[in-house]
Amino acid sequence: MRVKAGVLEKPFVFGIKEVEIPEPGPNEVLIKTKAVGICGSDVHYYVEGRIGSYIVNEPLILGHETSGVVARVGSNVTHLKEGDRVALEPGVPCGCTDFVKRGLYNLCPSIKFFATPPVHGTFAEYFIHDANFAFKLPENLTFEEGAMCEPLSVGIHATRQGNVGLGSRVMITGAGPIGLVNLLTSKAAGAGIIAVIETHKNRATMARECGATHIIETFDSAQIQKQALDITDGAGFDVVIECSGAASAAQTAVKVLKPGGTLVFVGLFSQAEVPMDLNAITQKELTYKGVFRYRNTYPTAIDLMASGRINVKPLITKRFPWEKVKDAMDCAHKEASSQIKVMTEW
Ligand SMILES: [Zn+2]
């Protein structure tokens, strides 16, 4: 079937084209798209045509934060029917690999992830997806909230990686979209103190509205350490969730953690190697946890939003009809410091 889709040809050459999509296989569903959020990674491909070793060599449909309506089901699919409203988890491991057996399917090197070359994304009227990665949305959730399951999943996974729980004292570096979802999930997990480092006014205000107990408005390491001691009565934080990708934030994290604390790194650094104080990490017995996308988070994201324990709506700061997907991308690119989530809608 022929559908219209937002296709990236090369940096800044992005527009709506007609493309051919296949019929759903026995274990797949055909989805009519309803909402797609623009992610930092989409903007990265749009501006540079690549992220690290992933390079856009062939025209690529962008978009991976998606909700829609089931339009057709494959012959083996029993848990979904036509008309169901669903959120789509973008990463599908291929087959029962060792990683899948161990419950670490997000780490499977053969995973197929929307809008990661050569796998197409979801800026399209319709697309095909593995039915096991389509999750029914309850009545009280909007399609936008369905699309927000994706960034929220990153927060859920990081919160789990850091063992954030009742009374945890957490520092989050950066209040961009990923810092903010981490703030929401840390709060939902019961964190006692949540301090957010953010110097940008709009983002600091947003962090306050999302439940930050403290805002540290400086990037200066000595200043951050001083404020961290004040905030925690000299004890230090239990967990630092690094969402900025700034080397200095990673280095400061080691200094503000209490012995036995946990470093959770979500942001990717632009420099290949970041010098870290390994002696301090060893002597303080810190735990280092990486976060690569997420696993087993979609049902949790849906429950947290449906029960009202997490509200992602304030994070959606701009909406575009999907025909204006190029304008939406330009907006996400040019207004990166003032927009949190730009959403496109069908
Ligand atoms: Zn995303």
Give me the secondary-structure topology:
Elements: E1 2-10, E2 13-20, E3 28-38, H1 40-48, E4 50-51, E5 54-55, E6 60-61, E7 65-73, E8 85-88, E9 91-92, H2 98-101, E10 112-113, E11 126-130, E12 134-136, H3 143-161, E13 169-173, H4 177-189, E14 193-197, H5 201-209, E15 214-216, H6 221-231, E16 237-242, H7 247-256, E17 257-265, H8 278-283, E18 287-290, H9 298-306, E19 316-321, H10 325-334, E20 341-345
Parallel strand pairs: 13-14, 13-16, 14-15, 16-17, 17-18, 19-20
Antiparallel strand pairs: 1-2, 1-6, 3-7, 3-11, 3-20, 4-5, 7-8, 8-12, 9-10
The chain binds zinc ion.
The site of zinc ion (ZN) has 5 residues, from helix 3.
How is this structure best described in words?
The structure is a single chain. Strands 3, 7, 8, 11, 12, 19 and 20 form a 7-stranded mixed beta sheet that branches. The chain has a 6-stranded parallel beta sheet with strand order 15-14-13-16-17-18, sandwiched between helices. Strands 2-1-6 form a 3-stranded antiparallel beta sheet, covered by helices on one side. It is globular and about 60 Å long. The chain has helices spanning 40-48, 98-101, 143-161, 177-189, 201-209, 221-231, 247-256, 278-283, 298-306, 325-334, and strands spanning 2-10, 13-20, 28-38, 50-51, 54-55, 60-61, 65-73, 85-88, 91-92, 112-113, 126-130, 134-136, 169-173, 193-197, 214-216, 237-242, 257-265, 287-290, 316-321, 341-345. It contains 10 helices and 20 strands. The chain starts with a strand and ends with a strand. Strand 4 (50-51) and strand 5 form a beta hairpin. It is an alpha/beta fold. The chain folds into 2 domains: 2-136 and 312-345, Quinone Oxidoreductase, Chain A, domain 1 (Alpha-Beta Complex); 154-290, NAD(P)-binding Rossmann-like Domain (Rossmann fold, 3-Layer(aba) Sandwich), CATH 3.40.50.
